[in-house]
Amino acid sequence: MSRQLLALVIAFHLLTGAQAQVSARPSPAVSTGAPSDLLDSDEFLRSQLAAPRTRLSDFDEQADALLKQMTLREKVGQMTQFEIGMVTSGKDQDIQIDPAKLEKAVVQYGVGSLLNVKDEALPLPRWRQMISAIQAAAAKTRLKIPVLYGIDSIHGANYIREATLFPQPLGMAATWNPHLMLRGSQVTAAETRAAGIPWNFSPVLDIGRMPLWPRLYETLGEDVHLASVMGVATVRGYEGASLSAPTSVLSTMKHYVGYSFPTSGHDRTPALIPEITMREYFLPTFAAAAAAGSGSVMVNSGEVNGTPGHENRYLLREVLRGELGFQGLVVSDWEDLKKLVNIHRSAASEKDATRSAVLAGVDMSMVPSDYSFADLLLELAEKGEVPVARIDEAVREILRVKFALGLFENPGPPGSPAAVGSKDHRAVALEAARESITLLKNEGGVLPLRKGTRVLVVGPTADSLVPLNNGWTYTWQGGKDYLYPKDRPTIRAAIAAASPTRFIAGSGFEEPGNLKAASEAAASSDVIVACVGENTYTETPGNIDDLTLPESQLRLVEAMIATRKPVVLVLVEGRPRIISRIAEKVTAIVMAYNPGNEGGQAIADVLFGVVNPSGRLPFTYPRHANALLTYDHKSFEDQDTSFGLKGFRPQFEFGAGLSYTSFAYSDLSSSAPTIARDGTLEVTVKVRNAGKIAGKEVVQLYVTDVVASVTPPVRRLRRFAKVALQPGESRSLRFTLGPKDFSHIGTDRKPVIEPGEFVIAIGGVKAPLRIH
């Protein structure tokens, strides 16, 4: 077996188990017109891992031939990445290519990559003009190596003014629909490449298990299986069957690894992650994306167990390239080699930092705003302190990516670009927003609202597109409202289009407002829709020390509750803000996440029953600020004590979500009561729409290992499938579980399956299993 194939098998086993064969196709005896393409999560995953795609190894010969022609200075240039300000003048919408700056960066220094926007998203024609000018400069160099341009298309091509914007990734995870994630990622890729940008710094594969972290909304949730499936869908949507296609972009697995679990909850701060925990929860998402062929990795800006990510040779070389079999380009994050000196203090000088990071496995440095890296690395190489062989290794990866993307043949924008922001693309974004919205409470069936209901809309997230999108929207922090489209309704506007509506903000995000006016307006209303949550943020500006919803917003909702009118709470937020003070007193709760520009319409569609909600929480919603356990916690944490402390009792559980219909589960059965450790198990369950309207149910299969040598979680998600059912319709779903589904990481840091008792649970029904 080749080294590459062996690594692929290891990565695949980390995630799914090599012997797992799965089908959520409905049983013919029970099905009533089921779609023939219904796949469960594992079958979807395996189909994407097997899908046609570009292999970077196919370009070894071309890369090696070009590498032999390059001087040391040209090689170092290829390892250098600058932000766009290094080749432009002006700001905001007046930014222009500066010929003198461009000449120095691209022609004299031969930089391999440029990235980012200077200040604001640009119109598509301006992007195409700038990218063309950059590539024209590259064509003037001795070897005519094109520039690799990269950008953060996090939830759509969010730095292109006309682009289609989707829910942020956490909201996409809430759809529990990998087919929709795949389609949305295809749209994002096509619209990004239309600008001439072939490299996307997405997806974030950091597992979302620290709710305070200000980038939680960029993750795909707290569960390994859900995040892995949705991550692979993202990678395959971006990269497509051919990286050189005018609708494909190179994906980036980030931020490898452990970035999302800082002890403080603050951005870019240290994490402490034991090796077993790292392998059980943090590596599998990257293993899955590597197996799916993702062509680049961005390194964790923080540190894990005292070692900064950019110096962690063990994780970058032994694990990433060795165990996971990653083939592709490793790029630093923003200015992170310098931060080894002035933040981490693990290097005495920038020269030392450059040497240690490159030797650890960094192929390209996002410098990003001076020539220090190129000058220092050239000096280090000339003195033999960084072997030329290591530089050749890095440049080979960069060149392979450029050949794979077809940049040598077509370096500029595609001649026939995708229709950016088209009606069809917006329809996909609206569908995604609708499927993400999660109904968490519906006391007395107050929802859906009837047309004609007199609605009072209050709250700081009600009448702006900004919080619907959050950061990475037209600007880094997403706060410039004049850049947002004028033809997309806010929540208030969309509700007003459906029913008589009054709007009074009542309070700001942090500031008290006119509660008296809001309370008086409630007297002539039938129902109050209170839209609360967070304003825009990302990265360090989003750091907080308390997840509790700000006091001004809590008081607003309490004032609305005091009117004795039904209160529907709409949460627009990138992380779960604590609402325990009001949760039991409001009539309904709708979790909207950050649904994007189509979110106002999607929320109104759910409130008025145009759409039956089908989103499910991709994280555990905490009840208290310091009770941040995940659903797959240890059994000890379930205990109530005799002196009053309560065990695991979140506000809402992972996977929770209501519908306007009801679903009933029955007939859970397995193919055998006992299997061998290397055996497989077929599990069947019937799900029925027991209500009066059509709806979509997310069928979730959990496995519990009752006793294990490493204390087991109370349960782990192993499969899911989203199923559409008409009223009264039933389907039987079959899942085949393999060895990985019953394994855990043992004390020797390897997967192990131990004999003993297990429990299979789906929809509240359970079946025992013994493994011998």
Describe the protein.
The chain is an alpha/beta fold and 772 residues long. It folds into 3 domains: 16-38 and 661-771, Sandwich (Immunoglobulin-like), CATH 2.60.40.10; 46-404, Glycoside hydrolase, family 3, N-terminal domain (TIM Barrel), CATH 3.20.20.300; 423-638, Rossmann fold (3-Layer(aba) Sandwich), CATH 3.40.50.1700. It contains 23 helices and 28 strands. The protein is globular and about 75 Å long. It starts with a helix and ends with a strand. Residues 1-37 have low confidence and may be disordered.
Short précis:
This protein is an alpha/beta fold.
> Averaged pLDDT, please?
94
Count of individual domains = 3
* Termini separation: 30 Å
Low-pLDDT runs of 5+ residues are 1-37
CATH homologous superfamily of the largest domain? Glycoside hydrolase, family 3, N-terminal domain
Count every helix, treating DSSP H or I runs of 4 or more residues as helices.
Answer: 23
CATH topology of the largest domain: TIM Barrel
Q: Using DSSP, what is the number of strands?
A: 28
Q: What structural class is derived from the secondary structure elements?
A: alpha/beta
Biggest β-sheet strands, sense, barrel:
6 strands, mixed
- What radius of gyration results from the CA coordinates? 26 Å
How much strand? Answer: 15-25%
Estimate percent helicity: 25-40%
Strand order of the largest sheet: 13-18-17-16-14-15
Just give the CATH class of the largest domain: Alpha Beta
**Shape label:** globular
* CATH architecture grouping of the largest domain: Alpha-Beta Barrel
